[in-house]
Amino acid sequence: MIHTVQIPPDAQLAPLLRRYDDARAAKRRQMALGTAILAMAIALACIGAEVDPSKFWDQLGNFTSYFDRLMNLDSGDRVWTDPHEWFWGLRRWLRLLGETLLIAYVGTLTGAIGAFACCFLTGRNLVRSVLLRMLVRRWLEFCRTVPDIVFALIFIVAFGLGPLPGVLAIAIHTTGALGKLFAEVVDNIDMKPVEGIAATGGSWFSRVRFGVVPQVLSNFASYTLLRFEINVRGASVLGFVGAGGIGEELITAIRQFHYSDVSAILLLLVACVMAIDLSSEQMRHRLLALESAR
pTM for the complete prediction? Predict the structure, then answer.
């Protein structure tokens, strides 16, 4: 089947082409203006932060050469030529990596429980008290605003070095982050089941248990899995300040210039995070598929 396209006369086509050219010119002007504003903002940021672009350019070679040194053993050979020497501390590193995973797991689980307990108190569709909603929201904002590494430093002073400060720091920060996400899910629920339970004389807890939780549980689980991925990386960084896990070994290797050890530990971390990302992504997709099938 042949389709024909009718071209309008030049008298009708000319105004359309002019408007099209004007629209393209306006788009280019907007792009140029946005680029100029971005360049000005970067320049002002460099001035405010006392960044010297010329020095940055001159020292750029040190940045790239560091990654090249990570690929060399102490003997000068490339790391992949002797994997046994490269991963000489594999057993110890795997144990510390497992400790990092446990810190992230316990901290995420504890934070998810705290967020679950708080999120139902933040929605105006469930709680009438403005003061209660405000207090809970401010608490969640405090938990997620303060960096987890600051919490870790505070708990290290209180409880000493080890995994406990890392677990507590991740738990508090996760409570604030997940509490915000959980609250947004609760704000968008279908209120008909809740109103039906209230009409039969159900208590507030009954409305939440039977009217709200079944609607939001799959989304809560999906957000918790996503947060666990983030906390695994966060738990590795918390080890820099003595909060347990493989981060302590990594910062020690960096400070002592054991380049091959740094690359081996980083490779283990990347492989672990990739495996967690892939598995949790599949789980999240399954949960969302179950939610959409209802």
Answer: 0.77
